[in-house]
Amino acid sequence: MNLTPCLSEAAQKEQEELTLQIAALEVKRQELTSGLNHVDQTIRSLQSRVAQIKNETVPISCLPSDVLEIIFDESRRVLFPWAGFRRPLPIEVQLSHVCRRWRQVALSTPSLWNTLRVPILHRESAIRTYLQRCNQCPLSVHLGPQLSDRRIMDVITSVLIPRIGQFRELILDTQDRQELYSLLCHLVNTAAPCLERLKITSSDPARGQGSYPPIEIFKQGAPLLSDVRLSALPITLPQAAVSTLHFDPLPGPVIPLPRSHLLSIITPVASSLTVLCLKGFVSGFHEEPGSAPVVLPSLRELVVHGHAMIHGFNVFRNISAPSLRFFTLNSLKRQALSPIHKFMTRTSPDQFRSLRSLHYIDCEMDDDLDIYLPHATSGLTHLSVSLGIHTHLMRLLSNSDKQAALHRTVPLWPHLRTLTFHVAAWSQGRDDIESDEEDELPPAIALLLDVIRLRKTVGTELELLRLEGPHARAFHDELSLALIKSQLQVNIEVLPGLSPDNDSQLSSSGDWASSGHFYGSQYRTHLYRKLQSGPHGQHHLHWGSIARGT
Asked: Which of 2, 492, 505, 532 has the fewest CB atoms within 10 Å, i.e. the most exposed one?
């Protein structure tokens, strides 16, 4: 028995008509939707044109493209701390997303795309895009940290190393020596004809233990190499006119660089070296008897940190700097500083007659320091000391000025015109003193006023008093009141944010190394935040999983 209902002829006809009407309406809806999309696109295009016309009236839009290029390039020097859990887009990418004209200018400026930080800011696709946009512009390359991912190393070896002829600046900042030496092995038999600045460091104390075998890099030459920063690693440099050489300490357990390795790095560049910074640990107990020091005829600036001296290394038994003008001694113990002073006084006047700036930073100075040191450095024009630590040196200067004023003789350091105080600590608002002692000056300020007054009395008036360090402003405020009460005048320069541990007093090119250190530190903090944000502190980071807009 068939139970399927049968439609009447009229019902079937009505169904067909309704179906046709539905189809026609659907076609009309598609036409209207297409028209609406076209209207939306037209509106957006018109809005874009209106915004473009409006932007053209903004003063910055009147700047020529070459001026914008300069502004874009300078903006990359500004360093902002990273916030949150996402890495920021590189500034050049942000600039290229502002407006059409800015993007045109950015994309047509090859030098804006010549800095690669792998894996800090750039992954493989971004690397290839940057290399395409920068064309043949010299490259600044920062490799590391976190290079253990095989894909990173593959990109470095297959994409970046073949372009090493374009490298102007190279920073290797790895997590351990295995990563470091994997990279260095790729640099052994290569040529770097454009390389000017090189920094090699290892930053993980847990995996950076053990001695490092010597390795020679750039055997085919790096003739323009001039600025080298090494973390106490025995690396043989190519023949080049290196002018700046830094040795920084490795983190973690003390691993001193053998004296022979240090001298083997310095000797080939002895004739061109102008700045030498010794901060890393150096082993100096096994010196060859009768060995002559390496002569550095062009050396103008020498920085010696206490780390370099605690293992028996003696600076002036190993190097000779007859043209030295800037000498910084940082955190030296008394037993390390005393031989330096004795050498300076013993070799006078043959040595140190060109010395103009002498800087003591947190050094333990002998109480029996005598006038022979100022006599040996009579040409000094700038003296730096740490407030409260080097009081004896200031008293020596004050007492010698008193004697010069009394006997009408030439004072010690007759050319001294600039005095710098590093103010690391200073007690403010002395609320705990009795009322009858309120007018009593702090000993440091009273001694400084004596120096200022006596310098003027003997005819060698100070031209500039510089205050540096986190408490420089507080010290300046109290000193200014004391100067007014004492009716004394001196030009004062306050630099509250300047650290006394600067590597160089001469060269402003140290910015490139500071920038590399900043990005490395920010990336390590970023990785730590990522690990802390994962479940139970576990968070797996995949290098290729984070897209970087370009």
From this structure: 2
Residue 206 is predicted with a pLDDT of 53
- Whether residue 231 contacts residue 248, with contact meaning beta carbons closer than 8 Å, is answered with yes
**Confidence bin at 129 (pLDDT 50/70/90):** very high
One-letter amino acid identity for 67?
Answer: V
Q: Each residue of 477-524: pLDDT tens digit?
A: 999 999 999 999 999 999 876 555 554 433 344 478 888 888 888 888
CA distances from 460 to 375, 417, 491 (A): 16, 7, 14
Give the span between the Cα atoms of 144 and 192, in whole angstroms: 20
- Long-range contacts of the stretch 226-229 (C-beta < 8 A, 24+): 226/196, 226/197, 227/196, 227/197, 227/198, 227/507, 227/509, 227/512, 228/197, 228/198, 228/199, 229/198, 229/199, 229/200, 229/201, 229/513
Task: Please tell me the predicted confidence (pLDDT) of residue 506.
Answer: 37
Burial class (CB in 10 A: 0-12, 13-18, 19+), 132: exposed
Amino acid at 146: Q
Query: DSSP letters along 40-66, please?
Result: HHHHHHHHHHHHHHHHHTSGGGGS-HH
CB 296 within 8 A of CB 321: yes
Give pLDDT tens digits for 193-242. Answer: 999 999 998 765 555 455 667 888 999 999 999 999 988 678 888 888 99
Contact 110, 133 (CB under 8 A): yes
Measured between alpha carbons, how far is 448 from 115 in angstroms, rounded to an integer?
A: 48
391-407 and 443-457 helices, crossing angle to 10°: 30
The span from the CA of 199 to the CA of 510, in Å, is 11
Report the C-alpha gap between 180 and 200 in whole angstroms: 8
Q: How confident is the model at residue 307 (pLDDT cuts 50, 70, 90)?
A: confident
Q: What is the mean pLDDT of residues 403-423?
A: 90
Residue range 378-407: mean pLDDT, rounded: 89
Which pLDDT band, with edges at 50, 70 and 90, does 542 fall under?
very low
Contact between 338 and 363 under an 8 Å Cβ cutoff? The reply is no
Of 79, 167, 94, nearest to 520 by C-alpha is 79
Rg of the Cα atoms in the chain: 33
Whole-model pTM?
0.81
Amino acid at 425: A
User: Of 183, 233, 237, which is closest to residue 208 (Cα–Cα)?
Assistant: 233
Mean per-residue pLDDT over the chain, rounded: 83
- Phi and psi dihedrals of 154, rounded to 5? -65, -45
Map residue 135 onto helix, strand or coil.
coil
Q: Which tokens is 292 given? A: 């002559």
Length of the chain: 550
Question: Distance between CA 434 and CA 300 in Å, rounded?
Answer: 50
User: Residue 253, Cβ neighbours under 10 Å: how many?
Assistant: 9
Q: Is 244 exposed, middle or buried (0-12, 13-18, 19+ CB in 10 A)?
A: buried
CA dist., res. 244 & res. 240, Å (int): 11
